UniProtKB/TrEMBL annotation, chains A, B:
Pfam families documented for this protein: Aminotran_1_2
Keywords, alphabetical: Aminotransferase, Pyridoxal phosphate, Transferase
Descriptive protein name: alanine transaminase
EC numbers for this chain: 2.6.1.2
InterPro entries membership: ALAT1/2-like (IPR045088), Aminotransferase_I/II_large (IPR004839), PyrdxlP-dep_Trfase (IPR015424), PyrdxlP-dep_Trfase_major (IPR015421), PyrdxlP-dep_Trfase_small (IPR015422)
Record function comment: Catalyzes the reversible transamination between alanine and 2-oxoglutarate to form pyruvate and glutamate.
Gene name tied to this protein: gpt2
Enzyme class: transferase
TM region positions: none
Matching SUPFAM superfamilies: PLP-dependent transferases
Listed GO CC annotations: cytoplasm
Cofactor (UniProt): pyridoxal 5'-phosphate
Quaternary structure note: Homodimer.
UniProt source species: Electrophorus electricus
Amino acid sequence: MKYRSTVTPKLHSLNTLNPQVKAVEYAVRGPIVIKAGEIERYLQEGGKKPFTEVIKANIGDAHAMGQQPITFLRQVVALCTFPELLDSPSFPKDAKWRARRILQSCGGQSIEGMFWSYSASKGVDCIRQDIAAYIEQRDQGVPANWENIFLTTGASDGIVSILRLLVSGQAHARTGVMIPIPQYPLYSAAIAEMDAVQVNYYLDEDNCWALDVHELHRAYQTAKEHCQPRVLCIINPGNPTGQVQSKKCIKDVLHFAYEENLFVMADEVYQDNVYAPDCQFHSFKKVLYEMGPEYFNSVELASFHSSSKGYTGECGFRGGFMEIVNLDPEVKSQLVKMLSVRLCPPVTGQAAMDVIVNPPQPDEPSHGQFYKEKGLVLGALADKAKLTEHILNAVPGIKCNPVQGAMYAFPRIFIPPRAVEEAQALGMQPDMMYCLRLLEETGICVVPGSGFGQREGSYHFRMTILPSAEKLKVLLEKVHDFHIKFLNEYSALDEAQRSVS
Amino acid sequence: MKYRSTVTPKLHSLNTLNPQVKAVEYAVRGPIVIKAGEIERYLQEGGKKPFTEVIKANIGDAHAMGQQPITFLRQVVALCTFPELLDSPSFPKDAKWRARRILQSCGGQSIEGMFWSYSASKGVDCIRQDIAAYIEQRDQGVPANWENIFLTTGASDGIVSILRLLVSGQAHARTGVMIPIPQYPLYSAAIAEMDAVQVNYYLDEDNCWALDVHELHRAYQTAKEHCQPRVLCIINPGNPTGQVQSKKCIKDVLHFAYEENLFVMADEVYQDNVYAPDCQFHSFKKVLYEMGPEYFNSVELASFHSSSKGYTGECGFRGGFMEIVNLDPEVKSQLVKMLSVRLCPPVTGQAAMDVIVNPPQPDEPSHGQFYKEKGLVLGALADKAKLTEHILNAVPGIKCNPVQGAMYAFPRIFIPPRAVEEAQALGMQPDMMYCLRLLEETGICVVPGSGFGQREGSYHFRMTILPSAEKLKVLLEKVHDFHIKFLNEYSALDEAQRSVS
């Protein structure tokens, strides 16, 4: 037997680890959130801070922020889980009807047939059919084929699966993936892990974070010098920007994708979260259809949706789906094979998704309550979107674009040059230092803009608009006071007022 | 605008696809299962076959085969999903108590606190603590630290995560991953996708599929010539073999891993599925502990468990966990980061896992029913394991090792040389041809041994022992008749009797 010293160095260390895993970053649950958890525990154990609670505005987790779940959705999932409840008089008929239908489509050949287990890897057939019907209605008649719908474990799972399918990390043919900056860091994380090339296109902050197709061209041409750009990722409504794309913009993007042979990944998980009265959600697929068969029959597209956002906010069930358009049949078979290795998405998430695409109809008993609850959630979000924008824009040195949709504000913050230097001396991103101080001094947890990407020399943070109106006001007032104090500390109040306006 | 012909070739075709995805194979839901689905639909639509139903013995999906879920587990998950039920008199107190506790640990800082949403990426704290307590009890006092427990989306997710962490596909340092042959094809699929090197070690069919440490040495030495073996995967109880490893064997394996600096991945998802009276499940961690601190403080180990197997068979909730031992703290941080990108495992699966590790105690109201149901399931499985072995061994040309544990029989089948030639002429694996004919002629769906790996020139299939006893008997009799007919067709009955015995 070989001799080994008592202080054994681990066989697997950072040195031997998969370098692509090391390259991954994910700020939404990154260092600042870990710090927030530590402070929270410290407070719970009786520790003292200048505040009594940590407000987590770092992640789009509606229920954790006190939003009530949609009753009907929870009823359907509970009925599917414990079918004895199908006999209970306290559950409405329409919920029971849906649960029975899902269970029947789920169990397959079992005689009992009423206990869900593994589903097909693509998802339960009747749910895929419901989703296709929903998409046709949403897109005013544009055809949707249920065979092109795949249930996923949240939208993240679908996005990663499609990227893995299309992206090759091989040295001689590294795939370029175009992503917006700022972006949702799942994209950069997946690209790093797959050893693909991240190709940044910058959204136009001065134009309410709109996507400018000239910038797409610039990014594409630059990238072509060192990789093969194949995939174009879009997030609409935008995360973290809250921007809602116009139909004109989507057309330009699709035309560009058509010309440059790019696979379009449309992250449309916030499709139900549009608040600005002059904005409307247009699906990429619908716009593609309107551009005519030359486009509709050729541009390859995947669209992603989720049960975690919208008005349901069901993050824990991990529900989601993707629709693929124009995928080569052989490539589709490869996708199915890849999905089958992971067996199936959670059935609870599939059922949650079914309720979203197949809500109670006017003649069904749950219709009233469902739409009342939905309206309350979306109404409150719209109010909080406005409130957030207004209060932030009243702070000297903070400028916030309108929160047209999604669940986040991504304000630009002025950080005085001396503070920037201080951060750099600490080996820290300036906005990371800012957010850490905000957390330490006020208990508010937001994510630094550097976690999403931003133009060199500009600084931001992302905050959710999910806390209750009351708590959100407290949060925003604390940000206001903190920011002024921060500026004063560097005697930079006047400078800030001139700089960001 | 560029001109494009009307019959547009897809931009992304098999040629441009990620080559690692193309290399993936997964027989458990592969071509034969797709074919079975087609036949099923054909029958449903009134088509005629020599049988009236397809019996799917291809996948370990207990509820689809008519096994009843454990009532208590479903109650807890339903209560967590729809907390209004906490006021219902028709749910037992112990189920309510568990649901409340999970929800409280789940919701974090929300005042309402009773609606689960995202959990921490590692899983709900109180569930991780319950799992650690369960492991300590299972391993008769060997310490388990809850900070080393991570909830996963089924065991597959944990296995893939650990492999991704450890495995590098980079040309100059390709990682070798040692896997048993036959294996569960998740392993080969993940290795192919990550561009690592699959290092086969063969289990000893003549010795009831036992693992022979000399074979490990052989495989390791051979592999070292072309890759860097870093990981050793073990499946115990075995899938597809049904073998249960002795403590002596586990010690030998751990000693080998210690000497050769291998990270041990112990797939122990069938730990509750041991039927043979002379066999017992020993966890790799417990045996490692018994080998003394020199081993226990140095061998890096990950053990995986699942809610999909055992006596619960809850496949749809996608519950699972892993325990990691001796991981370098920096590597552990990287693992946490990687898990956080996917946000969290489904909360329903986490709750299901909690019931498994924290079942009703003798003084709790659900204790009686719980253990009655558990006993029924495990008793029936033990009977069916015996039944399967006996009936298969009575077929000339079929030899089946005892099904000591897990949920599968993996009998060796004699395929006459002329049939082998015929298959090869069709460009098909001989056992694939056999299984396809079995399906077409009898409606029985099993998976060819080539999907799991087998010694050159030997043929097998994997079948689950999950159908009801009555249906299982029918299935086995049909296999019996089919096999004899198949042999007669090639005038090979005598040859078969001599060959496999």
